[in-house]
Amino acid sequence: QKQEWAKLKDEPTKTAEGEHVELVANIGTPEDVEGVINNGGEGVGLYRTEFLYMGKSELPTEEEQYKAYKSVLDQMGDKPVVVRTLDIGGDKELSYLDLPKELNPFLGFRAIRLCLERDDIFRTQLRALLRASTSGNLKIMFPMIATLDEFRQAKAILLEEKDKLINEGTEVSDQIEIGIMVEIPSTAVIARQFAKEVDFFSIGTNDLIQYTMAADRMNERVSYLYQPYNPSIINLVNNVIEAAHAEGKWAGMCGEMAGDSIAIPILLGLGLDEFSMSATSILPARTQIKELSKQDLASFKDKLLSMNTAEEVEQFIREKTNQ
Ligand code: PEP
Ligand code: MG
């Protein structure tokens, strides 16, 4: 089986009818890029920048960050690299920020919420990213966006820093796409409104499932409620993809679900454009997609969307795809 996967390493991902979909990887550090290349990744769909900030006693400098971002972009050449701005809080703490303990950290002061209030931290990261932008195909993505206003504020800060850099004589790419993670139900529900203003969506199902089902993604006691194939999730994901396409934008997914062999046929049928997963899942996924007809899967869409339970969805896909 490994041999069959290896044959597809340097090939683009194609469905049975020959349509291209993009298979990209999730990374946490510049060192992870080697694995992406060795596994035939067509780009980076999620660079989690938190690791630059964690396991340290102080904030990383602009220069440290610039080096890390530039290294990833250099290594990936002209392939797309989606960098997510700082997503700290929730389960990921930064002791040196000295933030007060919260009763519900996953519903609290995290990610973009923190970045908009501590815009000094945010601006430093954005400057590092903008300076690195000329080294490759950079796309910038904001995490945990719950309202259009948050996106507008974050984008305005980004554009301010871009203007400052240009006025200082620093070169900045003018091709940078600006997108958001869709991982909060409020955003998935009115994706149509967001789609008019963003360049792309990346659906973060790890959080979207926990927030939709109100089931902590780390809590074993309620893990039975953490249901990727629940029709509520399928409907939300579909809404996001349709909204993107209606506005001529692209929609990806960077949660664990994007690399799951039951979810892949569902997502393909819904028209997902980009699948971002751990590097080691790329070749198995490419092998699976080669055998899948997107047209056939798309014809089951209405049926899937109106199913009643996660079990029904799973069983249906298992039957249709011989799993
Ligand atoms: C997600 O929420 O699906 C996601 C990709 O982000 P993280 O797992 O880092 O929260
Ligand atoms: Mg998340």
UniProtKB/TrEMBL annotation:
Transmembrane segments: none annotated. It is an enzyme of class 2 (transferase). GO terms for cellular component: cytoplasm. Its EC number is 2.7.3.9. Phosphoenolpyruvate binds at residues 48, 84, 206-207, 217. It is found in: Cytoplasm. It catalyses: L-histidyl-[protein] + phosphoenolpyruvate = N(pros)-phospho-L-histidyl-[protein] + pyruvate. GO terms for molecular function: kinase activity; metal ion binding; phosphoenolpyruvate-protein phosphotransferase activity. The keyword Membrane does not apply. Mg(2+) binds at residues 183, 207. Keywords: Coiled coil, Cytoplasm, Kinase, Magnesium, Metal-binding, Phosphotransferase system, Sugar transport, Transferase, Transport. It comes from the Bacteria. Its cofactor is Mg(2+). The active site is at residue 254. GO terms for biological process: phosphoenolpyruvate-dependent sugar phosphotransferase system. Its main location: cytoplasm. Residues 2-292 form the PEP-utilising enzyme C-terminal domain. General (non sugar-specific) component of the phosphoenolpyruvate-dependent sugar phosphotransferase system (sugar PTS). This major carbohydrate active-transport system catalyzes the phosphorylation of incoming sugar substrates concomitantly with their translocation across the cell membrane. Enzyme I transfers the phosphoryl group from phosphoenolpyruvate (PEP) to the phosphoryl carrier protein (HPr). Belongs to the PEP-utilizing enzyme family. This is Phosphoenolpyruvate-protein phosphotransferase. The lineage of its organism: Bacteria, Bacillati, Bacillota, Bacilli, Bacillales.
